[in-house]
Write a structure and sequence with these properties.
Chain lengths: ~250, ~550, ~300
Amino acid sequence: MKVLVTVKRVLDYNVKVRVKADRSDVDLANVKMALNPFCEIAVEEAIRLKEAGVATEVVVVSIGPKAVQEQIRTALALGADRGIQIETDTMPESLSVAKLLAKVVEEEQPGLVILGKQAIDSDNNQTGQMLAALTGLAQGTFASEVKVEGDEVLVTREVDGGLQTVGLKLPAIVTTDLRLNEPRYASLPNIMKAKKKPLDVKTPADLGVELRAHTELLSVEPPAERKGGIKVGSVAELVEKLKNEAKVI
Amino acid sequence: MSEAERESMEFDVVIVGAGPAGLSAAIRLMQQAQAAEQELTVCVVEKGSEVGAHILSGAVIEPRALNELFPDWRDLGAPLKTAVTEDQIYLLKDADSARRIPNALAPKTMHNDGNYVASLGNLCRWLGERAEELGVEIFPGFAAAEVLYHDDGPLKGSVKGIATGDMGVTASGEQGPNYMPGMELHAKYTLFTEGCRGHLGKQLIEKFALDQDADPQHYGIGIKELWDIDPSKHQPGLVLHGAGWPLEGDTNGGFFLYHAEDNQVVVGLIIDLNYSNPWLSPFDEFQRMKHHPLFRQYLEGGKRVSYGARAITKGGFNSLPKMTMPGALLLGCDAGTLNFSKIKGTHTAMKSGMLGAEAVFEALAAGDEGSKDLTAFTDKFKSSWLYDDLFRSRNFGPAMHKFGTLLGGAFNFVDQNIFGGKIPFTLHDTRRDYAELKPASECKQIEYPKPDGKLSFDKLSSVFLSNTNHEEDQPCHLKLKDASIPLSINLPKWAEPAQRYCPAGVYEVVEDAQGKRFQINAQNCVHCKTCDIKDPSQNITWVTPEGGGGPTYPNM
Amino acid sequence: MATLIIAEHDNSTLKPATLNTVAAAAAIGGDVAVLVAGESCQAVADQAAQVAGVSKVLLADNAAYGHQLAENIAPLVAELAKTAGFDYVLAPATTTGKNLLPRVAALLDVGQLSDIVAVESADTFKRPIYAGNAIATVKSLDAIKVITVRGTAFDPVAAEGGSASVEAVTAVHDAALSRFVSEEVAKSDRPELTAARVIISGGRGMGNGENFALLEKVADKLGAAVGASRAAVDAGFVPNDMQVGQTGKIVAPDLYIAVGISGAIQHLAGMKDSKVIVAINKDEEAPIFQVADYGLVADLFDAVPELEGTL
């Protein structure tokens, strides 16, 4: 079974976000970019499936400018077999990404597609679900465990208040949550080998997808600074306020 | 980790540290190899998560070495975009007043015509891209954790390469679920370019007694912030330097404020680490300094974007150790090539890397199998402008230490402007920085004002802006030779100065129900190395944490 | 204008998150219909009909919808949106809503706005990006706007006072792609940090790890998760998976109680999106008080047991 994994290039999670002075967007000039942590978990899961003999090939795909090849190479260094870059000038919106990925799915015919549940920049949490809709496949989102059994994949999902396990008919779409696995480190020899692994570059036109905007970003601002509230004189007063004023207990 | 389990890889040259020296060396090696149409394998390991992540400098950069490395650097898009337009030098008299020193009275080395205000981090990112284009293998996120030596045969005792640190080791020292053993990187020649107080460089200096004919090395700590300021106050290319308040007594140092591009300024303070008052806190000196009208005029209404700190090797010519040893070279600030009279180390570090590359390539091209003591490097160094640059300013630092900022400044004016740095005698400064600390009881306690949250800030919110992170579950990378010393000796005698000299709040003496504890918040560490230098008991050894940890400086 | 809201429920009770979503719909304006899709969920429909501001409840009661499988419910919602002429489809930004709505949006060939925190106009919304470290103002260009709503950003409407009609929806979509296998409701009253509605966290002021038992007692009463500041983790009081603010542990509960935490910025960055912050600290100057809605200057070893006793 072939496994397709998607990776996104995002601002490194250690780097503090800074809004541009003109409020048009966040400032990404000269800041460290990295593989989206949820995508890294997706790559790890795919590699584990290969190591377990379930997957035969791991194909990694990313969308964006040439720089995203760095993240594809990272995934290849971790153990993916080959890469596909769909070259675009900017990072497209989720639905466009899903449409491009749907074409890749059509071409590659993977048994399983694993995506991060969300990217830590846009925090949308959409692409996997949209891809599932466009391909007409089942979706197992927020996975904390993935088990392939016969023609079905059992996905344990992290839902509010607990865990839910669903059985999905293969091929299927899975999105990863934090606790699915702990990704490995890439070793130096594998980083060097990754440079020689195949990486195809395609354009949206090659895939016959026309990108269309569904939203317009009007402005970005830093979050409002939180202001201090009141001091209470006693525990009794605190509990009374939480019950009757804030209504949170 | 037993060496038997470690894999190894072979290169012609391994370079430790992707700073200006290491990257310039890598690039020069490849340029020569391509010109000679020879195969050469060069690898650079870098402990930062990316090239530039751990780089922090002023910086006003003299492009002399870059001109030699890439004569067409402007066309290639090197990030030196803001030419210095004006130099201003001030002596701060007190918290409110400053005297501008006429440029004619300032040492010539302090003039910056033809230099650029730039981010050294961004220059390194650019150099890293060029190096990769030339075929250099750069491995960010891999820390060189130990030096490897040939242990038998004719090469016995020579440097064989380095080993990267193990990854995925837990705090208790066990192998975690994603454990990955370190890797041995063997080379014909290994170039150590770790920057100031490199932890391997320190071992090499000791093992090969590289400093036996040199004065003790001297250091400073530089603390820097990057600010977005009101565009109406911004004058790209304006460069301010000076000294004086708030430093007093035998504490030497100087400040800088540079107007860079995009309505940003950088502001910083460098304090010599031979200060004697254990109550001194470089961080708090810097924070209060920014309230002076000279800085306030630019910073007020602005927003602080980033923060960082790094030790500086500033002993210069007199403290420069031997830079060659069998199988390896020690280059850039790892050796101490910074020119303190110019407060610049980029051009000299780059040049030292290029000279090292030339010596190594010539040897390899002539069929050298490696592991030699490349004395040819020393000849190249002595006949280079780098040597001349450093020789001329050899008295600058010692004069400041001996005579203080004012008289020392006068000496330096005479030395640099009248004798061109060739005054016919040499001043020496022979005491180690850490040994200068006086007992706390003999010194005045310093009351620092509380930060106002607008111009001045506390340590933790500052470290926050350095984007510092370390994998939580790993052994502490700040090793105490004797865990009892902080409380048994340093606390009673010097009021444990680590609490104050560390600019990142790593060290704390905490008192709770069980009594006093010395706590090390290793996760905060910005890799400045000040503790390794200044601990009066020389009890703290800085070692590399898991690769990729540490600050993630943007535009610093 | 008409809005369709996907009710959050467990086939027997309507979850409060639905009420916050109705509030967001009210901010947009127009008619509000609620879809209750489930199995044997008439009771939920009856509750939804009571909700203030709801004009119509659509009840799709079928085994195919029993476990909220997106493969089955998404086509139902997309069909309703198209045929019944809804301009907006809203759901709470819960794991159920997040699982379902993007699938709906893709079926409708429109984008989706996730986790909105404010309604600026009929087509413009604010939403957090970069884990809440920036707020984007986004305009939707689509005819049907599909949106998930962050509950804490909208005060819930009243659960009662409305009198909507309940209409049955008979369309059945069973994609036969997925099946429900099992469910494991979090056993303890101690939820995961990132999913908890209430969090009580201890800092270095706790003194040692054993004293965290004081917090656990309060947590048991509130169904809260127990967290810790980095200082407490660094001091070795508790393991680092309890640390609020570390990778992936950005929390935004309804109530965050900080006990003996000074409020270093790293910690604040990890919890500043909490709806209500309470600080208990004996140091009146502690920075945590600058962000706390309710501050109590007191010795935690007196205040915390007293708090437990009062709850």
